[in-house]
Amino acid sequence: MRALPSSWRYPLSEPCRVLLCDDHTIMRSGLRRILNEAPDIVVVAEAGTAAAAVEAALTERPDVIVMDLTLPDESGITAIERIRAAGCASRALVLTMHDDIAYVREAFAAGAAGYLLKAAADVELLRAVREVASGMRYVDPTMGAALVDGRPQPRSLAAGAVLSLSERELEILRLLALGYTNPEMAANLNLSVRTIETYRSRIQKKVGLRSRAELAGLARDSGLTR
Known about the structure:
By secondary structure, the protein is an alpha/beta fold. It has two domains: 16-147, 3-Layer(aba) Sandwich (Rossmann fold); 154-221, Arc Repressor Mutant, subunit A, CATH 1.10.10. Helices cover 46% and strands 13% of the residues. It contains ten helices and six strands. It has helices at residues 25-36, 50-60, 76-85, 101-110, 122-133, 144-147, 167-177, 182-189, 193-207, 212-221; strands at residues 16-21, 41-47, 64-67, 91-96, 114-117, 138-139. It has a six-stranded parallel β-sheet with strand order 2-1-3-4-5-6, with helices on both faces. Helix 2 (50-60) runs parallel beside helix 3 and helix 8 packs across helix 9. It starts with 15 loop residues before the first strand and ends in a 5-residue tail after the last helix. The relative contact order is 0.12.
């Protein structure tokens, strides 16, 4: 992967090489079209799972990896950690629908260089890719203020409460962290959706957390997804 100078300006004389990771083919096609229309960006590979993204990153060594968070096998955050652990210098730009600030903090803690919401305009995607490729950090404009407010994260207070969860509750918390929906968890565990909802409500009450992002972060912090 080539190094980009600090004086980098758009467009590049040498295109920024991008790997796309999203489990929806239509989404990847749209992203590929947007990025390839830019004179200084080229999509060199695509992946639909975290495992495929890790393999493609290590093979192609792209400048930027545009990474979704919710993937079929494991989270995009885990994929970013694996890619960095393997010594790959590619910079990750998270592109997701999750607008919870806990996800932003987790993504940067895992080694991401940027975080953008899927609701963003095309021009914002191009700007994010370019800034991440140039060595800068990028945060979706709608979330930047919340990221720097400095307030303590509530899930740090809930870590001890994990010990109070039953084996079934721990399994549901693990699946939730891996991005499973309630119907998917129900099918996986041979339970009804209503039962899953009951377990989830019980978990939320025990650990004192409400949002999916906070629960997922708690599961990862507790080692449930390893």
